[in-house]
Design a protein that fits this description.
The chain is α+β, with helices and mostly antiparallel strands and 86 residues long. It has 2 helices and 4 strands.
């Protein structure tokens, strides 16, 4: 069995603004100061600063922040498998 390594995944930090109550806990715990509250008091990320460490997801009391990890296809970039059906 082949072991997956860190390079086999891509991650994205998703903030569900409709769930965010603007408590600022994520902002306080972000080690890279990549999160802030917008004019409506909702969490927003700075894409340049965010390292997708997931600390904000851990501390969000409203589950408004999710770190989504997706496995890269071993055939990414070629026209085999699912992409061949387009």
């Amino acid at each position: 069995m082949v072991q997956a390594n860190q390079d086999d995944f891509i991650s994205d930090l998703v903030i569900k603004k409709e769930w965010c109550k603007g408590c600022g806990i994520c902002v306080a715990f972000c080690p890279k100061e990549a999160l802030f509250l917008d004019e409506k008091g909702k969490a927003i990320k700075d894409k340049e600063k965010c390292t997708k460490c997931g600390i904000c997801e851990t501390f969000c009391p409203d589950f408004a922040i999710s770190l989504i990890k997706r496995r890269l296809s071993p055939n990414a970039g070629d026209e085999t498998g699912f992409n061949a059906r387009k």
